[in-house]
Amino acid sequence: xxxxxxxxxxxxxxxxxxxxxxxxxxxxxxxxxxxxxxxxxxxxxxxxxxxxxxxxxxxxxxxxxxxxxxxxxxxxxxxxxxxxxxxxxxxxxxxxxxxxxxxxxxxxxxxxxxxxxxxxxxxxxxxxxxxxxxxxxxxxxxxxxxxxxxxxxxxxxxxxxxxxxxxxxxxxxxxxxxxxxxxxxxxxxxxxxxxxxxxxxxxxxxxxxxxxxxxxxxxxxxxxxxxxxxxxxxxxxxxxxxxxxxxxxxxxxxxxxxx
Length: 259
Hints:
The protein is mostly helical and about 260 residues long. The protein has ten helices and no strands.
């Protein structure tokens, strides 16, 4: 029975990957046919064969700049996610933090933070710090909201059980609060890490001389639409890979969710 289950697991994984891949391939095929049939100019809308070929011919440049962008995404995501969980815990468990900090964070979230990019350029110049900081500011709030929801959803009877056994604060947090809130926290992680890719691309338009956003900016100047689409495909692939990486960490960190 265990051998059969072990053999069927890769098949289920392959099936989950194959279905969206087939849908995506069908969409590209339809796109290719319509562009060729309607004779759409290349600078308006390239056919999939055009920008997929650019991925092959420019793979070294796209790989190099893609790694720079992915690194910024990871750094910005970590810089925003960790404080999001910490403040989510404080807001959910300490009333004064909920009354003072949560309205402040909502106010900051309402600010158009992308407009801060020119100001940060004046403050910090063309360095990686302002890009990481802007990414962290934008990714912070979704993680905060999901963390607050997760910590607030804990059954209070578990706290009675914890106190009756004489558990310390750390034992209560590590054994009860964090595992109970983890599904909501990881839900925020999976959404935020994809948003972070978009944020980094936009920030690289405004304040960068490298990365995928910089490639898009230069391609726009050259009216190279095929390269723009090739870059967007690479950026989407980065988002998918990072989302799967977060999902893998979730499966390892909270194995009971598999069932």
